[in-house]
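Thread: "does anyone have the structure for this chain?"

Original post by V.I.:
We have the sequence but no experimental structure in hand. Need at least a predicted one for the grant figures.
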Amino acid sequence: MRVFLYSELQRQIEKSGVGRAILHQRKALEANGVCCAERWQDADVVHINTVFPHSFFLAKKAKRHGIPVVYHAHSTKEDFRNSYVGSNLFAPLFQRWIKLCYQQGTKIVTPSFYARSLLKQYGIEKKIHVISNGIALSEYQKDTAAGQRFRKQYGYKPQDQVILSVGMQIRRKGILDFVQLAKAMPQYQFIWFGCTNLRFVSRKVRQAVLHPPKNLQFAGYVPKEQLQDAYSGCDLFLFPSYEETEGIVVLEALAMQIPVLLRRIPVYTEWLKESQDVYFAGDLQEFETKAAQILQGKLPDLTENGYHAVQKKDLPNVGKQLLRV
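Reply from O.Q.:
Generated one for you, tokens below.
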């Protein structure tokens, strides 16, 4: 079987979750003996990951030529909101557009049962398959030397306790809450990896990024290897995002076996058990309290359970599920 993996404007979106997902798909399929075609005309299946205009027309063109289309539904109206300036205003139009795109698929795939429930609410009646974006577990191994390299690079002392988050610098990711937590917890060091063009975000987010408290660093986008160093060298992964269709960085943190504290939202609770696999918080006060308790050793270490929870999302397993579809 030959599959054409398509992600429109890949260079522009490669730093996003969708950009990462297509790289995971290639590895997952190749691990199961599936060839990835270089042209859609040479493929047995066209697998589309984006909702830009050319993606829509490629789906229609492929079907006209008798090639089935798998449309990967990464985006929802809910995760479009609270992202860029004007996103809330255009969210209803975005919902109608992505529904039109996804319905071009012979099959539809989405990363979580939560995302599938949203798509069904939009009125999409086709069968929707739930398949994780997955993670290459073999590539995510905690490394003491790598952690020390990270701490040296960013100026942390051996006694510093470091709280890490990763994501685009947008309101939906909870970046304003992360800044507030840094201000409320000056005894800890905070660092955020990921970037966004600040011309397209709200004034509050722009000011927060440009004028952070002294114990918070915005490190920007870094290659995967440097991010793995950060996972190895931090003491807590705190992800305050308000909306996700899965959250690849959560898979990465669990794979690196570091403590994880997430916002209590439906997409996680369908596969992660609270206070068994990870810790959850619902508001700033709970984030502050639980983060301190985790770092002070007052709450049990859940990292081994978290690792077991993410093992089923290893890329070879994901590839088997994609192959069945």
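V.I.: this helps a lot. The first helix runs from residue 10 to 13.
O.Q.: and The first strand starts at residue 2 and ends at 6.
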